[in-house]
DNA sequence: ATGTGCTTCAAACGTATGTTTCAAACAGAC
DNA sequence: GTCTGTTTGAAACATACGTTTGAAGCACAT
């Protein structure tokens, strides 16, 4: 948690504040005062606020994408020849995320929340940065999904992947708030691992749903007003 | 599309800009210049930026929640006694959203995107506003879901509902961009109705997934490094 | 025409932001 | 110790924001 180097102190503070409040809502002054560092240090070490955002993502995304690649390597090796199943692919992704070495106990949820924010908040510069830095593991994941669901048409698969992304990004991006609600309403504590364990079967079942229902079932239509 | 009244022009512009860029990233000056209205008009007619955000939500959420209530009424009447099925409940919601009278062709995706933002961007004041204004149809929907999935534990159901919300809000909120990609890559046209038709079976299948897998399947674990 | 209540307008206010500046402090090599 | 390149510090910069102000414009009843 506590690095004494200025750069790391800034990254730690920024990561946490970005995850809590989003990018635009977090000012450099909040970051530098939380990091106990001079305001000018951000622009000195990173160049700009946007570059700091990129650095925050790079710090955890680069090791994560390496972990993910090797997880996919091992998975494919174990399946020699046969394409991995949908469940195996989703689990490889989940386990890679969960097993990433964390700087502190909030590590995973910060990680997830930042990924959700990256997708959710428009932030054009961020999306471009992520696309050109991490497109490889992403398209590899897409390829595995395709092999694991040969029964789906390209269009069906496309949309169902979007649904999966949405459920994941959305849930993770508000997971702290959701956990609070759950704690208050049901008196239950939840870890990110448990959320992931609930999410994977949901996604797998949705992905493999039998019918694409192109018209509503009889009797479900509202009468025309 | 084009209302000549100042209040409506502001609401139209704000709605579109908020959906595109989020709340903090949209300034009053952007809104008023898009609406071709004086800057002070927002504070004159609405009182503050936050109150404008509330008004944007109220304008589409109030009629929607009325539509939804009556859809649920009809559904329960048709089922007399028996609880509606999960598919029926989801379809009632979907049809209500799709059939809402829209101000323009982007109506539904703006609507969905705003709902997603309301959940995603922290914006404490918004969450409070929505909770106290629209808790009724929300909890009614939750009640129907509960009756339709008696096999789920409260905690499982809670999380699966979050997953459904996520898949829906996320997909609909970026459906314009997604449709563009689909058109270019696969040469297919897609309507919001068709997306909904693909979404509902996905959600229903995920919601009814058999197992909540609290440990990964054997052989899916990564060897310890 | 005159007065009245509501609406628009240009301008300014105070505050917060990201960024820059330049002198001071520091560390390591000679 | 002195020089050199790097890092920190306090202060200022320019800009953008939400909000407020007070005069001007307008519609309409009297």
Question: Which descriptors apply to this entry?
Answer:
homodimer; 10 helices; 225 residues; globular; mainly alpha; DNA-binding; 71% helix
Oligomer: homodimer
Q: Show unreliable segments of chain A.
A: 219-225
Question: How far is the N terminus from the C terminus of chain A?
Answer: 60 Å
Rg of chain A (CA only): 20 Å
Largest interface: A-B, 74 and 72 residues
Strand content of chain A: under 5%
Report mean pLDDT of chain A, rounded to a whole number: 85
Helix percentage range of chain A: over 70%
Decide which structural class fits the backbone of chain A: mainly alpha
Pfam families (chains A, B): TetR_C_30, TetR_N
Keywords (chains A, B): DNA-binding
Protein name (chains A, B): TetR/AcrR family transcriptional regulator
Task: Outline the secondary-structure elements.
The structure is a homodimer of 225-residue chains.
Chain A (H helix, E strand, L loop, with lengths): L5 H16 L6 H7 L5 H6 L3 H30 L7 H14 L7 H14 L3 H25 L5 H20 L1 H12 L5 H16 L18
Helix pairs in contact in A: 1-2, 1-4, 1-6, 4-5, 4-7, 5-10, 6-8, 8-10
Chain A binds a DNA duplex (30 and 30 nucleotides) through helix 3.
